[in-house]
Amino acid sequence: MASHRRPKQPNRARVTVLTSVAAAAVALSAQAASAAPSAKPSKDEVKSKVDKLYEEAEKATEKYNGAKEKQEKLEKQISTLQDKVARGQDDLNQLRDGIGTMASAQYRTGSIDPSVQLFLSSNPDDFLDKASTLDQLSSQQVEALKKIQEKQRELAQERKEASDKLKDLADTRTELGKKKKEVQGKLAEAQKLLNSLTAAERAALQSEQSRASRASERSALSGTGTPASGRAAAAFSAAQSKIGSPYVYGASGPSSFDCSGLTSWAYAQAGVSIPRTSQAQANAGTRIYSTSDLKVGDLVIFYSDQHHVGLYAGNGQVLHAPRTGTVVRYESIGNMPFQFGVRI
């Protein structure tokens, strides 16, 4: 009769060790897979990402320019208000001195109650509200007290206005700092991507840009575009004199520019003041919606949020300050999403 033996059970400790080893192997395999270097982005992929970052930086730059312009206006307004308040306080002091002198003279002659003098010097509003005392005042004194009341109200309003603008200025400075930080962050990220390219790849990108710029310049100069006006021609000529100047965010000349800095500077040389930002420049004149109707010197607005502007150069070309890492140059108007032109 055959014997029936129970199969030998595996040692529990051995099973635990084998399971742990297997799990560790799987984990190491996963870590190795994740640690495997990803494929290096191509030159064109880097260029695409960099262009996007530069576009985002330019959007932030125009907001930075707007905040900076607002800050400068507020500083001027606050300075004017503070001067008005100081002059107003001097006027008020003189009015009080005058009414006090009259009251003192009347008191010395015994023609006015001593308490009236206190009212006159400390609280003319309350004093005038006490109708029973009006018969003790001359018409000259009543008129003087009314002037004091009016001046006090005027000063209170000017002080409040100055206080409100100071708060607005503090908020604007905070916004300015945030936008500056945002621009710098985008530019640093773009530079990091460019640094990932080899020297040969960076040189190839630069060569491509230079060839495109030269082609655009030849096209612009071969055209016979008519200036929109004498001042537009002068503005365009001023911008041409800055070809090769570097793009610097927030700059408005004379040695470096951002996009709206170049256009506002160029028109200033022609004796025309236009707003500082591209969005504001978009509303600075008559809009031209067809590229075929553009004339040399017209502003050209790009992108749906109007964050880029240049000057029409004729023959389908625009003269502008493109972005960080470039210089003032010609470029095909079709390289960016055209919105409309603006004739100043």
Layout of helices and strands:
Elements: H1 12-35, H2 43-109, H3 114-122, H4 124-129, H5 139-195, H6 199-222, H7 230-240, H8 259-269, H9 278-281, E1 286-288, E2 299-302, E3 308-314, E4 317-320, E5 329-332, E6 338-343
Antiparallel strand pairs: 1-6, 2-3, 2-6, 3-4, 4-5
The proportion of strand residues reads 5-15%
Element pattern in H and E: HHHHHHHHHEEEEEE
The largest pleated sheet is described as: 6 strands, antiparallel
Rg on CA atoms, Å = 37 Å
What can you tell me about this protein's structure?
The structure is a single chain. This protein is of the alpha+beta class and 344 residues long. 62% of the residues lie in helices and 8% in strands. It is built from 9 helices and 6 strands, in the order H-H-H-H-H-H-H-H-H-E-E-E-E-E-E. The protein has helices at residues 12-35, 43-109, 114-122, 124-129, 139-195, 199-222, 230-240, 259-269, 278-281; strands spanning 286-288, 299-302, 308-314, 317-320, 329-332, 338-343. A 6-stranded antiparallel sheet has the order 1-6-2-3-4-5. Helix 2 (43-109) packs antiparallel against helix 3 (114-122) and helix 7 crosses helix 8 (259-269).
